[in-house]
Amino acid sequence: MKNNRKNKIAKEKLIGYAKDEKKSLLSGLVLSLVRTAMEIIGPLIIGFILNNYIRLDLEREGFLAIGLLLMIYLLVYLLSGLFSNLALVSFERAANQIAFSVQKDVYGHVTELPISYFDSLPAGSIVSRITNDTNKLKMMFRLILADMTTSTIMIVSLFGMILLTNFLAGLMLLVLLPIIYIIFNDLRNKTRKYTTLNRVYISDVNSSINENIQNMEIIKAFNKENHIKDEFDTINEKIFQTNLEMTKVRSYGGYRAIDIVGYLATVIVLLYFGVGRITGIYAVTIGSMYITIDYVTKIFNNISTVVTRFGELEQSYASATHIFDLLNLEKIEKLEGELKDVRGDVKFEDIYFAYDEEDVLRGIDFQVKSGETIAFVGSTGSGKSTIINLLLNFYSPRLGNVYIDGKNIKDINRNSLREQMAVVLQDAFIFETDIRDNIRLDNIEYTDEDIKRALIDVGGQALVRRGIDQRIFEKGNNLSQGEKQLISFARAYIRNPKILILDEATSNIDTDTEKLIQKGVEKLKQDRTTFIIAHRLSTIKDVDKIIVLHKGRIIERGNHESLILKDGFYKNMYDEQMRNQ
Questions:
Q1: What is the gyration radius of the CA atoms in the chain, in angstroms?
Q2: pLDDT for 437-456, tens place per residue?
Q3: ∠ CA 482-484-489 to the nearest 5 degrees?
Q4: How far apart are CA 481 and CA 483, in angstroms?
Q5: Secondary structure of 169-183 as H, E, C letters
Q6: Is 547 helix (H, G, I), strand (E, B) or coil?
Q7: DSSP letter, residue 475
Q8: Alpha helix locations (H) across 166-285?
Q9: Is 494 helix (H, G, I), strand (E, B) or coil?
Q10: Per-residue pLDDT tens for 351-375?
Q11: CA dihedral 452, 456, 459, 461 (to 10 degrees)
């Protein structure tokens, strides 16, 4: 029932995209019909020559007539080739435009999905849908649908001509219809089975490759190259086996079985004409026999095309279903409220939140006034980063509300909300471009001088001396961790946010670099509300408020001095860090 619904949705979507390109598709269809007419006329010319001109006492006028008819025959097949090519171009144009539209819609849709979706699906699987599946969808419209459409038109038209010219022979050929149906149905079922398996395995191998390449340093450091190669080989072997099975099925269905039925059809035609010739029960001619055999040969060539292409159609249709599964995922709700003239007052009111079933935040309640700095500390899994995710509205609380300047953020447009914020993460993400574009992030309003000033203000003088045109490799591999973090700080600083979020922003940096960056942090914090997730407690001595979290609850709050005097959880954490240092 569920699969039927998914197939119905996929069909509706495909029809919708096809309607947008109906001009090119209709043009291809009309050209295919004209080409079919040429294929019908050709054998009729030869049949006419055989019936009316091929005899022992052929005179000069007869030779001239045959020559003229053969010239017409040549012209007919030249036109057939021309219209066939034009039809293919029309289908190709429609296919490329449809693939372009689908790929654009899928990518646009992915950017509007909730963050929770990306928590559960590997990046490689998403990439596979956007690239591999849309390319297979293009193949469906470009070659498969074009071939199947033109072949179906040819089959119906040619068989109709057989019924018109030799009705009894046409009825005799209908005996083969059940055999063709059995072959076709068997091929469809087996192709669907192996196509589904193949799509799953390809998605798995894409996810595996994506994960392994991103973590190659860890793999090499732990000497796990052979292990991941074995894993890859296992999945790859499954892909090979399913492709081999599909090849066997297509070979049997599209060539061997259909060829045998085609031979039987030729035998039936020869029997029909042989009986008519010997008994004289019905009139037969050599020309008529030629026309019928030619038509039968073309019919079964086109049946073979339909049957073999049907397997590829199943594969493309499975990809289409995969794509539309993604397009049917519910997008983030559009919110209408706007944040203007933001001061930066933030309030969390009795927040409860769960990623799955168990709450990871329980009764979180605090306020931060404009310009204040608040830090969150606690052990791993205590809920520090989750608070930041809720502030950015990546997730919504199960219970409770988050307010900025008295406005509930569940009513505020997310773009408007995040324009007022800047984030510096523990692991700085660097794009594969130059330093300039990594800081301005496609905002052309920032001049080179603005970018250099931002870098200098956060402590990145050395990067300015090297030049903001410096090309950065993938994941910033030609930069130190400190340099990457400086770029992240400059990226945040240049936007002059009202609310700044530092998510363990200096925890991956050595002590010397941290001292350099700390000046930049202080510069960043000026005149804005700042949220800090702290790993090194020595860096938050001067903040206005510290929230101590444990298992999703606030167990202590205050500034550094007051929490030290409490002699509780915070003081134990601080003393332990001081001893380790």
A1: 36
A2: 888 887 878 899 999 998 88
A3: 90
A4: 6
A5: HHHHHHHHHHHHHHH
A6: strand
A7: G
A8: 167-173, 177-214, 216-221, 225-250, 258-279
A9: coil
A10: 999 987 788 999 999 999 998 999 9
A11: 80
Q: Which of 197-206, 262-271, 345-354, 388-397 has the lowest mean pLDDT?
A: 197-206
Tell the residue number behind the tokens 């009705």, with chain if given.
Answer: 167
> Is 473 strand, coil or helix?
coil
Q: What is the mean pLDDT of residues 302-306?
A: 85
Encoding tokens for residue 544? Answer: 């206005």
Tell me the HSE value of 278 on the side-chain side, using a 13 A CA sphere: 6
Q: How far apart are CA 492 and CA 424, in angstroms?
A: 7
Other Cβ atoms less than 10 A from the Cβ of 306: the count is: 22
Residue 50: C-alpha distances to residues 175, 286, 296, 318, 366 (Å): 29, 7, 18, 49, 98
Element (H, E) at 396: none
CA–CA separation, 161 and 40 (whole Å): 8
Q: What is the mean pLDDT of the chain?
A: 84
Provide the 3-class DSSP secondary structure of residue 71.
helix
On whether the CB atoms of residues 570 and 539 are closer than 8 A, the answer is: no
| Six token digits for residue 225 | 């190259």
Are 568 and 556 spatial neighbours (Cβ–Cβ below 8 Å)?
yes
In angstroms, rounded to a whole number, what is the distance separating the alpha carbons of residues 144 and 312?
Answer: 7
Residue 369 in tokens: 């006034």
Predicted pLDDT at 118: 75
pLDDT tens-place string over residues 19-50:
888 888 888 888 888 988 898 899 989 888 88
Count CB neighbours of 475 within 10 A: 16
pLDDT for 516: 66
Which residue did the predictor score with more confidence, 428 or 493?
A: 493
Q: Which CA distances in Å does 280 have to 165, 275, 361?
A: 17, 8, 94
Least-confidence region, from 74-88, 179-193, 549-563: 179-193
Helix (H) or strand (E) holding 555: strand 553-558
pLDDT tens for each residue of 229-276:
888 888 888 888 888 887 777 666 555 788 889 899 999 999 999 998
